[in-house]
Amino acid sequence: MLRYRLKPVMSAARGPYSVLFLCTGNSARSILAEGLLNALGKGRFRAYSAGSHPIGRVNPLALEQLAGAGIATEGFRSKAWDEFAQQGAPPIDAVITVCDDAAGETCPIWPGKPVTAHWGVPDPAAAQGSDAQKRAAFALTQRILRHRIEILTRLSLDKLDRQELQKKLQEAGKSNP
Q1: Which residues are identified as catalytic?
Q2: Which domain covers residue 27, as residue numbers?
């Protein structure tokens, strides 16, 4: 049986691989993922974030977590996913939803042909309790996302085709630190 090698998803001459992280409110999880990938991706990746129903502001605890990890927090804003579907928007290679299925949230469905994956993470912005308990929820979310993003950044995108990448991203979404 012949096996055909599909075209890799990235070549050295192409530039950074762009990833759009989507969640519901674009105030916490997707913001954390955007900041983490831009920092950990070391120029190989360009991350963005958006929400299906953006709340219009970034949660201060998300910015606190990023700052605590040494990641600059300027420029983050809560925005709608359709901003990335408009003419002139940056091309998106992969869309990763980070909303939590178990919480009954609606995850947006992205039109077009990017590679997609679901990395469900509980919403730390919904955490109840003391300030310390809320910060702990944000820290846990950041740890989970960081672990998955580290898996992504170790992938050899110049050797993977779309189908292989899709599988690797889905596997990463089931991985926990």
Answers
A1: 23, 99, 107
A2: 17-163
